[in-house]
Amino acid sequence: MVIVMGPQATGEDVEAIVAIVQAAGVEAFVSRGVQRTIIGLVGDVEQLDAPNLRSMPGVADVMRISTPYKLVSRDNHPERSTVRVGGVPIGPGTVTLIAGPCAVETPEQTLEAARMAKAAGATLLRGGAFKPRTSPYAFQGLGEAGLRILAEVREETGLPIVTEVVDAHDVELVASYADMLQVGTRNAQNFALLQAVGQAGRPVMLKRGMSATIEEWLMAAEYIAQRGNLDIVLCERGIRTFETATRNTLDVSAVPVAQRLSHLPVIVDPSHSGGRRDLVLPLTRAAVAVGADGVIIDVHPNPAQALCDGPQALVDGDLEELAHLLRTLPPVLGRALVGDVLTV
What we know:
The protein is an alpha/beta fold and 344 residues long. The chain is 36% helix and 19% strand.
């Protein structure tokens, strides 16, 4: 069962509902989004008086939802949601470009990459300070020093920061710097981490696990939502298949399927799915065409010297083509690049 609170509901209204529910021996999880607050109930809800709950102050509706991912389901929230990151919207009707270096290496490299990304139309800066890698000998990121560099670049460029957190113990630290927390594919079912970011008070980008079904992806989002955070953006980044011609296999069908099942925004990572610079733009076109709410793309001023994922990072000529693509294709589909919308 889910209790939907109206936009005018007060904190006291929410507390009164929680008190009644808990007195009946049912657990209540309060999830606050930009648009509304939802109370998810777990336990023997049959003993609760739904009509009585529906009549209480602040309550907009009481619903029984059959899907296992109750809070992120379209059954719960028929209209698709918009998530705002530092004032930048990600959601229906627009396309948001998130771009920057896969890994923060130096202040100079990060600032130059951010300027390149912004010139291409990016309104959010991605950059990794903590880098979980397949090899323990690969560059693992600068840690808090990288976070400080990102904060300095945000000050210089005005771009809000999206950065990955890989350990539940680091969530508070990363959240103190970041505007949006990213959970990567390797941690997509790290339930302790998902619960921790759900309590961090920051929007979350949840990448799909490399072998996760769409239902498993949405259940991972439910772990975040259940801990109080509905500001979640789903990211399709390619899945592991038998194919070896690309780094991963971009599942473009996941975008409309996830948008039909869930009210959360869905974006695509064409950099990590293709794994090659020459595939990023074609996959970006596919992502926009299929209805993705945004794309997250690697940018580096000197990919040949990049410490992480240089072969997939875009450079100047590619970025000019990317900017043209994102300013011409979305309007054909009735949408617009977010940067263009914000400057109107």
